[in-house]
Write a structure and sequence with these properties.
- Its EC number is 2.7.4.9.
- One of its GO terms (cellular component) is plasma membrane.
- By secondary structure, this protein is mainly α.
- It folds into 3 domains: 229 residues, Up-down Bundle (Growth Hormone, Chain: A), CATH 1.20.1250.20; 229 residues, Growth Hormone, Chain: A (Up-down Bundle); 218 residues, 3-Layer(aba) Sandwich (Rossmann fold), CATH 3.40.50.
- The chain contains 26 helices and 7 strands.
- The N terminus is likely disordered.
């Protein structure tokens, strides 16, 4: 059974196609695809056989199907930490061929023996062999492709692992349709849908063994430096120690566990749920395929469709929506509607899935990322085993219930009740996760949806650099230049490398543009032309100074950034602020400050501090009042990123307030803690 923790689905663009042009890797990829196809088809077949062996007993069927899922997951929980170590000591090619031949024999034997004991025993053995086959395959991939194509190779490997699930579901459904005809040529006990699927499953592994046997390019020696899985208990302890201090990561992991709790209930009860709808194996295959079709849509399209939302916000929202559709699915008694709802449910689950794993990569520091992922993997495996064990028990205990409403009558079974409860839990978990991560707390999700539809949100998708980006905004005479200098000095005393810049004028090109834009002799400039000139300065500023410094891990402080254009050329010049923001977001490739300090001061007070007035400062008071109000409006949309300071206070007081807020930034706090540890050593 594929690892329950896939990474985000990969694209199949030019890079993916080029890596498949490597003959040895293409053969290995074919073996992965057939092996994964066999795993998914085997899952469908063994759960279907478990129900068949129950002879129509509802409780027995639930327990039997739960048993299949539990025995498929238990080897990973128990043997997973050491399987990679053992596999690393053998010849990879021979080990993979050996495992595939045994999986062939085991799947072939299940329909021949035809009882629960051997179904569970063979399933456990299959999973054990898979645990050895997988690390041998993973260690082989880097030897098959150049280093610059390794990422593409991993992407198409994921496609082979998870893209074959809908294909297996289609094959299973087709077998259900033709099993009646085949039963005329074979004895009934060997020609059921589950039996036929298991035979094909066995053949797929035999074919995989033949492909790998021909791959002489696989190194015969053991892999040096191969990754070794940590002990689950150790991973849980160390992972908990690192994540317990982060509110965001706690909300993220809590939400991911809730997602898998709901998913476990659906997986464990899908077969009996379909039976409750008076449908057979073909419908089970279609419903199974619908889940993965939805997941694929959510994983591949979700990041594009919801690109304007922050990952923190969309994660909790998508999880909640997915759980709502699970509740709706439990109430549906029509198979066609159930399949349609399952696709939507899967799509939002996919969005939540890819957002969650992307955030783990972005929010967790590099040195603890491995332990955090091990912690999450261990928790999810354990939670899946528990849910798969408990959900069918609850369903069996609830049983069938009929409700009458005057002339209308409807019957719900234990599977529907349990899925309904799982959906309720998922909604609660999603809501708590959404609120815990505190993304834009004073702005409703609906407001964000409306803003996104107008293109006003921008691509708030998290940092892609290791530095810290702080911008200062505010009206004329607010003291931004003074405070940026003071903050630079403070951070350098703390050992940080700081780049201080300004807009316009932070680059040689910017200085020339600044002369044109602010010189009184320039005269009137078209508001749109003015906005484009500021955007041009900003684009070059980011390209030549800001982004290189951030990628080098420095702290960047800029006196004015994107919000100044929105306030001055948007509100001040009475253009559409959303249009001005869109231009600057395009110019900066959506580079967003980690923190924006807004120096708030009444326009009249700020202007009175100036000794001479440039072209913008000489604008009427109403112009500057509109600018001040727009800065406050912008800050109100995202209180977590914006910090508004009363700029009428003494500069020392203002500096202290800014320093206190800056030192709360997680990455800066982490840097300072590391420096303290280094000094102690």
């Amino acid at each position: 059974m594929p690892n329950p923790l896939p990474y985000p689905a990969a694209s199949t663009g030019p890079e993916s196609r080029s890596v498949l042009a490597i003959p040895a890797f293409r053969k290995l990829w074919n073996s992965m695809a057939f092996s994964s196809f066999g795993d998914w088809l085997g899952l469908l077949a063994t759960t279907a056989m478990a129900q068949e062996l129950s002879n129509g007993d509802y409780s027995k069927a639930n327990f039997a199907i739960a048993g299949v899922f539990i025995v498929r997951l238990l080897p990973a929980v128990i043997l997973g930490p050491i399987a990679g170590v053992i596999a690393d000591r053998f010849d990879r090619r021979r080990l993979m061929v050996f495992c595939d031949i045994f999986r062939f024999g085991l799947y072939l034997s299940i329909p021949i023996v035809g009882n629960y004991f051997w179904l569970y025993t063979a399933t456990i053995l299959v999973e054990c062999f898979t645990l050895f086959w997988s690390p041998a395959k993973e260690a082989t991939v880097p030897n098959m492709v150049p280093k610059n194509k390794l990422e593409s190779a991993n992407q198409v490997s994921l496609l082979a692992a998870y893209g074959t699930a809908p294909i297996a579901a289609i094959v299973f459904s087709l077998l259900a349709l033709v099993s009646t005809a085949i039963s005329k040529f074979l004895p009934a006990e060997y020609s059921s849908t589950a039996d036929l699927a298991l035979y094909i499953d066995a053949i797929s592994f035999l074919y995989t063994a033949w492909i790998v046997y021909q791959l002489r390019e696989i190194p015969k020696g053991s892999a040096s430096g191969a990754a070794v899985n940590e002990n689950i208990g150790k991973a849980l302890f160390e992972g908990f120690k690192f994540v317990s201090g982060s509110k965001v990561i706690k909300g993220l992991i809590f939400g991911m566990l809730g997602a898998f709790f709901a998913a476990g209930a659906v997986i464990g009860l899908a077969r009996t749920f379909v039976g409750d709808l008076n449908a057979g194996d073909a419908a089970y295959g279609i419903l199974f395929g619908a889940v993965f079709t939805g997941l694929a849509l959510g994983i591949s399209l979700g990041p594009k469709v919801f690109a304007q939302f922050s990952r923190r916000r969309i994660f909790g929202a998508a999880l909640t929506i997915s759980s709502f559709f699970l509740i709706l699915l439990a109430l549906i008694t029509n198979l066609v509607l159930a399949i349609f709802i399952t696709i939507i449910l899967g799509a939002f689950a996919g969005v939540s899935w890819v957002s969650g794993f992307t955030m783990l990569g972005l929010e967790v520091a590099d040195e603890v990322r491995g332990r955090t992922f091990a912690f999450v993997q261990s928790l999810i495996r354990i939670s899946l085993v528990l849910v798969l064990a408990i959900a069918p028990v609850i369903a069996a205990a609830i049983g069938r219930h009929t409700f009458k409403f005057e002339n209308f009558e409807v019957t719900y079974n234990g599977a529907a009740f349990t899925m309904f409860a799982a959906g309720i839990i998922g909604v609660i978990v999603g809501t708590i996760s959404y609120r815990t991560m505190r993304d834009r707390p004073n702005v409703s999700l609906w407001s964000d949806i409306l803003a996104a539809s107008r293109g006003e949100l921008g691509g708030i998708t998290g940092a892609t650099h290791t530095g810290i980006f702080i911008s200062f905004e505010g009206g004329e005479g607010s003291g931004k230049s003074t405070q940026t200098e003071l903050l630079k000095t403070f951070l350098e005393e703390k050992g940080e490398k700081v780049l201080l810049s300004r807009e316009p004028g932070g680059t040689p090109l910017g200085k020339k543009l600044r002369e044109i834009l602010l010189d009184n002799q320039t005269g009137s400039i078209s508001p749109r032309a003015e906005a484009l000139m500021y955007a041009a300065d900003r684009a070059h500023h980011v390209y030549s100074l800001i982004r290189p410094a951030l990628e080098a891990g420095e702290v960047v402080i800029t006196d004015r950034y994107l919000d100044s254009s929105v306030a001055y050329q948007g509100a001040g010049r009475v253009l559409q602020p959303s249009e001005v923001a869109r231009i600057s977001r395009w110019a900066t490739e959506n580079l967003t400050p980690t923190l924006t300090v807004v120096m708030d001061i009444p326009a009249e007070v700020g202007l009175s501090r100036l000794k001479s007035l440039d072209r913008l400062e000489a604008e009427p008071l109403a112009f500057h009042e509109r600018i001040r109000q727009e800065f406050l409006n912008i800050a109100n949309t995202d209180p977590e990123r914006y910090f508004v300071v009363d700029a009428t206070q003494d500069k020392t007081v203002i500096h202290q307030q800014i320093v206190e807020r800056v030192m709360q930034m997680p990455l800066l706090s982490q840097n300072q803690n590391e420096k303290k540890r280094f000094r102690r050593q």
